[in-house]
Design goal:
Blueprint (H helix, E strand, L loop, with lengths): L6 H6 L7 E4 L2 E4 L11 H6 L6 H4 L7 H5 L5 E4 L14 H11 L10 H11 L2 H8 L6 H8 L5 E2 L14 E3 L2 E3 L3 E3 L14 H10 L2 E4 L7 H6 L7 E5 L5 H13 L5 E4 L9 H10 L18 H5 L13 H7 L4 E6 L2 H10 L3 E4 L13 H16 L9 E5 L5 H9 L4 E4 L1 H33 L12 E2 L13 H6 L12
Parallel strand pairs: 7-8, 7-14, 8-9, 9-10, 10-11, 11-12, 12-13, 13-14
Antiparallel strand pairs: 1-2, 2-3, 4-15, 5-6
Helix pairs in contact: 6-18, 7-12, 9-18, 15-16
The chain binds 3-phenylpyruvic acid (PPY).
Length: 499
Amino acid sequence: MSERLSGKTVAQHNSRESCWIIVHGKVYDVTEFLDEHPGGSKIILKYAGKDATQEYDPIHPPDAITTNLPLEKHLGPVDLETVEKVVVEITDEEKARQERISNRPPLDEILNLHDFESIAKQVLTEKAWAYYSSAADDEITNRENHAAYHRIWFRPRILRDVTKVDWSTQILGHKSSMPVYISATALGKLGHPDGEMNLTRAAAKYGVIQMIPTLASCSFDEIVDAAQPGQVQFFQLYVNKDRAVTKRLVQHAESRGVKGLFVTVDAPQLGRREKDMRMKFEAEDPSVVTKSGSEGVDRSQGAARAISSFIDTALKWDDLPWFKSITKMPLILKGVQCWEDALEAYDVGVAGVVLSNHGGRQLDFARSGIEILVEVVAKLKEKRGLSFPNENFQLFVDGGVRRATDVLKAIALGATAVGVGRPFLYSFCAYGQEGVEKAFQILHDEFEMNMRLLGARTLKDVVPEMVDASNVSSHIVVPGDNLYSNNYESMGYAKLKEV
Ligand code: PPY
């Protein structure tokens, strides 16, 4: 057995010249990694010579450090008894947050998915809330995603025996208790110590399919290990410039039983999420001006942008046969935004597309998935004679979904299922696994009631004639531009003479 290093030895390496840190009882020499750390060197230097586990855990998958540092920098175990405990100063702000956590309402007072968002906003750290809730530029698309559902109205049918209603379905040939799957969202441990595993465990109980994110904070294997035998999971892929890494990830996912590969195609560069950027900036020492270019990673760009440099900006249609050659998993393109690309996807023979704008986090003024669905269904019918839902080419939609009625509108218009991201994320940030279970239960209750009120016994009865979507692509009413309006000073009115 290798000898344990003492805390005293580690503590001597506490500078930029020689920087050792302890993570999970092991010592790492990160001196040469300091300037490559996507989160910046400052945060590592804060823990130079010390135990960084508490800071490391919420953000990184457990194997991030071991896979990123060359073996010769793994210095071996430390005798933890000899390591000075890191006392994390509890700020007044943090105390107030803890108080808010204790004051959360009981779960039975949570009535809808909006409630989770409201609680999450109050109990998350500012940084986590900024990262999760942020969206691109003026966040117009982010708000439009939900608003678009308001332009679709129901045409319910009556006098059908709706004693028994069933909204279960099949997604890529796999049973799902509802036409909803958990869409990928990154960095789950920013909001709860169990991160994405909260979703896995709740999904097992409710028969819902989870899409595992490339950038989860739990490791991929932890998330797969947390699943029950037979539980279906998909994998969301950010394509790495290093195709060997991509191939390894994809084939590992397949070998672990993942049933579908959702390749993200709307993020060659991450959008500017200014809430996230501002938070990062404020957290840093304001006297340090960060610059981009020569130093590589521009650290002023927020948590997401900092870790996105691995994404392949050169990804193109011609690469798709390569994906098909390395896996038998069905391939789905996530982030298709017009009928022309949906048609091309169909022609190259992928299994489906997700009509999505990445939760409004990429191109601002991109249209909502539900609006794109309407044109995709019409054009694929016209040009390829397809009808939807279609087993051989499945259409998914995500963004802005908060109610079963939103989902049912998408189903009526031809979607196979709908992805829900932030609401499930917020439900575990607010209440852990139980929160996610409650979110599923809420959707269950909403589906039951709304299927009855629509006059639909199964999803097959939820047909295009059940909705009026004639205004879906009308953009005459745009969502309010909050940033602009808050800064704008009204001209005021003519006033009466003072009396
Ligand atoms: C997002 O934040 O929208 C993501 O998709 C996750 C992410 C996080 C960090 C880098 C790239 C993508």
